[in-house]
Design goal:
It is a single chain. This protein is mainly alpha-helical. The chain is built from ten helices and five strands. The strands form two sheets. The chain has a three-stranded mixed beta sheet with strand order 4-3-5. Strands 1-2 form a two-stranded antiparallel ribbon. A hairpin with a 2-residue loop joins β1 and β2. The protein starts with a strand and ends in a 5-residue tail after the last helix.
Length: about 325
């Protein structure tokens, strides 16, 4: 469907192609997508349920983890069903408004997860460097305010992109070689100048994700400095072990994104389907693996899951 205006023809409906070059393999590709989606929904929902229902887990670290699990559920629900619809039913048609809504939500959640990982690093810093003041500094009231601040930061930074996208006239091809909508992937089909979109998108990344990474790095430098000053080797081991899960999640969250960005900027000879697959890994892998990592490495959560699944065992 198209509409006419003074600038010409503007598409209002787009077609998501899926993974270009691998259309014949879509049915097979859908299997890991479906499995990861089910694991992400069940794992994160279980994590949220356990943390909210067990008063012993109403500590800052677990409440932040609950926020991260909630964000993972939303991120998966906003992207993976669309990909599965393309793989199974070739249902790639999407309206402009729905496309903008999708990347607005996914970008907001991505920024929120980055902010949550930052405050989780701050939580570990307080727990290790100021253990006696931990509960008085990170009160439930402060945690609630932090959660609201993370949401508002994401919402306010991404919200202008809606207007930057709505102002564009999409007079070029309306077939998008992707499984979900992204800001720049959509904007590049406009016949307007998109320099504002590009520069604002760069500003958002630098002012949120890049800043978060730098502050997380500083937090762990301070944590390691405090750990190496501990007199007991057991205390050092325990302190490092408490950060293990968080470090794994950080690498899982930022690693694929950084690698994808590098391949997009410098991998000119890499086939397009590799870029799309890497972008999907950034969306699919963290929500699936985060609850597994915390379930395996965190004793309190592991015990609660075992008690729930096998209540009669001591």
């Amino acid at each position: 469907m198209t509409t006419l205006n003074h600038t010409g023809v503007s598409h209002t409906v787009f077609h998501l192609l899926g993974i270009p070059g691998l259309e014949d393999q879509h049915m097979w590709i859908s299997i890991p997508f479906f499995i990861s989606y089910v694991v992400a929904l069940l794992g994160n929902s279980l994590l949220i349920f356990i943390i909210l229902t067990k008063s012993s887990l109403h500590e800052p670290m677990y409440l932040f983890l609950c926020m991260l699990a909630g964000a993972d559920v939303i991120l998966s629900a906003c992207t993976v069903p669309q990909a599965l619809a393309i793989f199974w039913f070739h249902a790639g048609e999407i309206s402009l408004d729905r496309c903008i809504t999708q990347f607005f939500v996914t970008h907001c959640i991505f920024m929120s997860e980055s902010g949550i990982l930052l405050v989780m690093a701050f939580d570990r810093y307080i727990a290790i460097c100021y253990p006696l003041r931990y509960s008085t500094i990170l009160t439930h009231a402060l945690i609630g305010k932090i959660g609201v601040a993370i949401f508002l930061r994401s919402y306010c930074t991404i919200f202008p992109i809606i207007f930057l996208s709505k102002r564009l006239t999409f007079c070029q091809n309306n077939v998008i070689p992707h499984t979900f909508c992204e800001h720049i992937s959509l904007a590049k089909y406009a016949c307007n100048d998109i320099q504002v979109n590009i520069w604002y998108g760069l500003f958002v990344i630098v002012s949120t994700v890049v800043l978060d990474v730098l502050l997380i790095f500083v937090s762990y430098v301070l944590i390691l400095h405090a750990v190496f000053r501990m007199p007991s080797q057991d205390a050092r081991h325990k302190a490092v072990n408490t950060c293990g899960s968080h470090v794994c999640v950080i690498i899982l969250f930022y690693g694929p994104g950084i690698f994808t960005t590098l391949t997009q900027r410098f991998g000119c000879h890499i086939p397009p389907h590799i870029h799309i697959l890497l972008a999907n890994v950034c969306i699919v892998a963290p929500p699936m693996l985060n609850p597994i990592i915390y379930g395996v490495k965190t004793k309190q959560i592991r015990e609660q899951v075992a008690h729930m699944l096998f209540p009669k065992q001591k």
